[in-house]
């Protein structure tokens, strides 16, 4: 099964639709890989509806491609809220002013619900997920694509200590997963999009903690970030309409369509063979993702780790080698409007410094805003509590009585007529705008870091060709081959 | 200790000192050149990766470079024996270190997969100059003590 055939002309959308449709029809006639899809937050308060939408979208793409998908999501099919959405109008409730003053106005905008994911095999609680995952991976002889959409935590030690944050606040580290799938001999590929996801590249190595020897089984994958950085999903704010995580771009490239269903304007099938491989999808993401993710593949991780001591610390040569990363570098520089010359890295770094200063100023301004908000909230709470003391104990009988006798309406009316409240609303709206600016700044910094990283990868490929042992070259080629294998 | 004995002991002190300093000085020079050019792994690693990882790579390089560092230390001692003790020639004492850096960059470019000396030349020559400065400072200190 071919994941997709993209239109050869970017401008010819109708033709693209016809080609995509014909390939979709064709795709059902071939044999399929297996996909294991794990998703959701680790508790209702951290289970964003956007993750659920991602899981449903990815599930649909893979299922439509004829791939057998097994899905684990939050609490599985257990009753109870496990996902929250965000109301478009956080001031819709009559009591929103109280939330602005007393509680978390973001919590006020939340709408909790049960997940809408179809065909859920079970919960992601590690006590049930790990045995199921272990059995499936160790007994399944078909190639498997493992996809995770959720949260992750950093490791204070080796990169393999990074974890998936699973339901009921349980965790599964890259090292634990590695230790549990030692019997697996069939190919395994993965797409991990959580914070610190890069640590999961250690699944490809014989020793999860150190060394460069690859496992006998073919393993490779793609992650949104390195083992040391947050990913886009953990950005300052999470506007659902502006969610640009790794999944958004990677699976759009694989399917040929964006989340909105539109055919992509650019063909991710870079070699024009009619098949978009996971590696091509990753390259499409590198080229087109305007997000704060500095995504990477296992082969790129291998290059980073391989670099010998006598090359690592040397400045890179000004001349750019001729390879696919160099091409991506040139394309990215053009998109960013940075002229290509020997000063390009320096200019990119100057931009980064300027943007970091701007980001620091924005963060400082946000801290000041928070302090001002806290002061106003304190004043308003003091005034209200002087007249209605039960307001300070929202779980007491006296408070319930306030609710029952309709006093809350009076309180809200008193509150909204207070000039300090108007000031507070203005401050909070300014805070929201600041969040957007901070996210934008982070994304702009990442684009420049990506430019420098692509240049470095271009040099690393060149260095491997020049200085690498036969074994290192073979290992790298094996990883690239694994990443370039189409999903079937 | 008589002055003559102290003089003969100086290369024994100088060689290990230069050998120990070789890797840190190399890293410092490479970082400075990388900073000027805007491109070096350590610039990004400093901001993007844990410091313990940087330290680990630094120590790894220090360990691996010991044989080369010993050679550089011995070269410094030979340079001192040949050049530093004569009145006029002593003005150029330490010159063998940057020259060795330049020669090494061209030799590596000729006989190894580094096919362009400019990949190494600035860093190795700068390292040689910096080590020569350390060596001259040690020599000045020796003279003051004497």
Summary of the model, kept short:
With 488 residues, chain A is an alpha/beta fold.
Structure description:
The complex is a heterodimer of chains A (488) and B (146). Chain A has 488 residues and is an alpha/beta fold. In chain A, 48% of the residues lie in helices and 11% in strands. Chain A has 2 domains: 13-79 and 114-308 and 470-484, Rossmann fold, CATH 3.40.50.1460; 314-467. Chain A has 16 helices and 11 strands. The longest helix of chain A has 49 residues, at 419-467. Chain B is built from 6 helices and no strands. Chain B has 146 residues and is mainly alpha-helical. Chain B has one domain (3-145). In chain B, α1 (3-37) runs antiparallel to α6 and α5 (96-111) runs antiparallel to α6 (121-145). Classes of the chains: A alpha/beta (488), B mainly alpha (146). Chain A binds chain B through residues 226, 228-229, 294, 307, 309-310, 312-319, 343-350, 449, 452-453, 455-456, 466-467, and chain B through 26-27, 30-31, 33-34, 36-44, 48-50, 53, 57, 60-61, 64-65, 113-116, 118-120, 122-123.
Give the helix tally of chain A: 16
CATH class of the largest domain in chain A: Alpha Beta
The interface involving the most residues is between:
A-B, 30 and 33 residues
**Weakly predicted, low-confidence segments of chain B:** none
User: What Rg of chain B is obtained from the alpha carbons, in whole angstroms?
Assistant: 17 Å
């Amino acid at each position: 099964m071919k994941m997709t055939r993209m239109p050869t002309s970017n401008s010819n959308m109708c033709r693209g639709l016809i080609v995509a449709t014909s390939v979709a029809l064709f795709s059902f006639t071939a044999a399929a890989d297996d996909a294991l899809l794990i998703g959701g937050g680790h508790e209702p308060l951290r289970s964003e509806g956007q993750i659920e939408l991602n899981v449903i979208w990815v599930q649909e793409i893979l299922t439509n491609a004829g791939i057998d998908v097994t899905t684990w999501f939050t609490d599985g099919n257990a009753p109870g809220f496990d996902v929250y959405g965000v109301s478009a109008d956080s001031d819709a409730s009559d009591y929103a002013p109280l939330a602005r003053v007393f509680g978390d106005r973001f919590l006020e905008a939340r709408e909790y619900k049960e997940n809408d994911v179809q065909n859920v095999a079970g919960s992601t609680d590690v006590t049930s997920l790990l045995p199921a995952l272990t059995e499936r991976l160790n007994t399944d002889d078909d190639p498997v694509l493992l996809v995770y959409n959720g949260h992750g935590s950093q490791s204070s030690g080796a990169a393999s200590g990074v974890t998936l944050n699973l339901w009921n606040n349980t965790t599964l580290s890259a090292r634990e997963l590695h230790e549990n799938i030692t019997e697996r001999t069939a190919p395994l590929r993965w797409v991990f999009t959580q914070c610190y996801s890069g640590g999961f590249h250690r699944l490809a190595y014989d020793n999860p903690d150190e060394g460069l020897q690859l496992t006998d089984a073919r393993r490779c994958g793609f992650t949104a970030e390195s083992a040391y950085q947050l990913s886009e999903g953990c950005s300052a704010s999470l506007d659902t309409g502006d969610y640009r995580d790794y999944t958004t771009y990677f699976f759009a490239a694989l399917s040929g369509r964006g989340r909105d269903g539109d055919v992509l304007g650019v063909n991710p099938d870079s070699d024009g063979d009619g098949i978009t491989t996971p590696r091509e999808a990753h390259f499409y993401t590198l080229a087109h993702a305007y997000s704060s993710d500095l995504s990477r593949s296992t082969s790129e991780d291998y290059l980073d780790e391989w670099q010998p001591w006598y090359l690592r610390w040397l400045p890179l040569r000004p001349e750019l080698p001729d390879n696919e990363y160099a091409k991506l570098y040139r394309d990215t520089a053009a998109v960013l409007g940075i002229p290509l010359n020997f000063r390009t890295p320096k200019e990119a770094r100057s931009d980064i410094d300027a943007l970091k200063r701007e980001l620091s100023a924005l963060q400082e301004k946000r801290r000041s805003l928070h302090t001002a908000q806290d002061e106003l909230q304190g004043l308003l709470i003091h005034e209200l509590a002087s007249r209605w003391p039960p307001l300070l104990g929202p779980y007491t009988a006296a408070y319930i009585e306030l609710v029952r006798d309709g006093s809350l309406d009076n309180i809200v009316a008193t509150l909204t007529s207070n000039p300090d409240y108007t000031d507070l609303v203005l401050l909070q709206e300014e805070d929201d705008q600041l969040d957007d600016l901070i996210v934008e700044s982070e994304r702009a910094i990442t684009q420049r870091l990506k430019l420098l990283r692509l240049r470095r990868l271009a040099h690393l490929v060149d260095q491997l060709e020049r200085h690498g042992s036969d074994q290192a070259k073979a290992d790298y080629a094996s990883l690239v081959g694994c990443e370039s294998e189409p999903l079937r | 200790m008589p002055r003559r004995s102290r003089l003969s002991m100086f290369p024994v002190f100088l060689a290990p000192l230069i050998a120990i300093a070789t890797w840190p000085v190399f890293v410092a020079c490479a970082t400075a050149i990388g900073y000027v050019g805007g491109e070096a792994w350590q610039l990004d690693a400093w901001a993007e990766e844990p410091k313990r990882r940087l330290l680990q790579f630094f120590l790894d390089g220090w360990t691996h470079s010991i044989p080369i560092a010993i050679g550089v230390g011995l070269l410094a001692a030979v340079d001192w024996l040949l050049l530093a003790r004569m009145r006029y020639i002593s003005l150029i004492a330490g010159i063998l270190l940057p020259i060795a850096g330049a020669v090494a960059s061209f030799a590596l470019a000729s006989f190894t997969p580094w096919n362009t000396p400019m990949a190494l030349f600035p860093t190795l020559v700068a390292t040689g100059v910096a080590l020569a400065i350390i060596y001259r400072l040690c020599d000045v200190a020796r003279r003051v003590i004497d």
